[in-house]
Amino acid sequence: MALWGGRFSSDMNTKVAEFTESVSFDKRLYKHDIEGSKAHVTMLAASGIIPGKTAEDICAGLDKIKNDIENGNFEFKIELEDIHMHIESALIDALGPEGARVHSARSRNDQVALDIRLYLRDEIDSIKEGVKEFQKALVEQAASSSDAIMPGFTHLQHAQPVLFAHHLLAYVEMLERDAGRLDDCRKRLNVMPLGSGAIAGTTLPIDREKVQELLGFPEITRNSMDAVADRDFACELLAALSIFSMHVSRLSEDIILWCSQEFSFVELDDAFCTGSSLMPQKKNPDIAEISRGKTARVYGDLMSLLTLCKGLPLTYNRDLQEDKEPLFDAIDTVKMVLAVYPPMVATMKLNKDKMLRAAEDPFLMATDLAEKLVENGMPFRVAHHRTGSLVKWCRENHKNLAALSLDEMRISIPEAEDDCLKLFSPSSSVSKREIPGGTGPGQVKKQISFWTARLSDNKDR
Known about the structure:
By secondary structure, this protein is mainly alpha-helical. Helices cover about 60% and strands about 5% of the residues. The chain folds into 3 domains: about 5-105, Orthogonal Bundle (Fumarase C, Chain B, domain 1), CATH 1.10.275.10; about 115-195 and about 220-355, Fumarase/aspartase (Central domain) (Fumarase C, Chain A, domain 2), CATH 1.20.200; about 360-455, Fumarase/aspartase (C-terminal domain) (Ribonucleotide Reductase Protein R1, domain 1), CATH 1.10.40.30.
């Protein structure tokens, strides 16, 4: 008979047990369940609710159970439903009736809410470290290729010359905001729910602040119904992981394009590529492609959890058992990406000559010409129109913008001077953009120095 089976006259149907079990996936919470239970019984003893000796025996028993699980000496049974009932049942088997005191003044509802929060705190910390390593790989690659010039793109068309390092550092900025979202999420979930009971708290004289202190929470939940019923913190985490995955997907798309023969800007190390089962010449950027694909999976996990929660009345409903699989899946997926992506970026090799040749098209410096006219006193819209007319004339007459004579340029821009003929070098173009946030070499070096120092700081960001 189940631990909750006092009012039932028969055991659960086998198929129902299979349908309702969650231990097959929630057993990963064992450490956090044991951590929470040890804090709980320590508080129960301090509050005079259970004997001190019983609390000591329970804590020792919990430590043995943890050791047994980690050494593969623990049997999981679907009839015990979840990891919480498994641990409590094992404790009772070991200690007899005194072991049953572990569940005094708590419900599985607030117990699960606690375990999830403890688990997510640890996972967020781990993911943040992974994001930091990802940033380091991008910054180190940027530093090693700080002189590489490539065409920047808008609408997937050549736009203006930029430093390759500037492009990579754009993703470092995105990842920093991802880390900030993880920080924000951690702050909101870092609230201690134990003591909320099933819905209304408990009549026993517990000391919730004691458990809060033992488990390192900065505060306790204020409403017992909210504490056991809501999973907004889990939704928020999956939203943050979805945005992170979106950023990874965009970088993946860039890398996939750069690896193509049409671009040939970079080559990935063989260790991070695969071949074709048919075409012997192929070298495919599968890590980038799979990472791009896994973004859809993380999005699906978020939508699954949002849909799960959207129609639930207060307070706890068994539907919430289904929160764990999408949550675990998204975390596992992101951690897997973080394990393979940074070393792929770190070992990426650049074809600087091919990048530069692609950036040498003089028409990419048309904006430089328009801004030179502004510098010489012309209103920008007039300068933009005159430059556009010049580009049109060049196209129609098969002329290279950089090879024009002053007289030819003055056909469209009567105000043009000699200095307007000296603007069509990619290195000159990027060097003129020495404003904060620009792609100028000095500014990019400052950004590399900033991120190198920031990411080497062990303090929490």
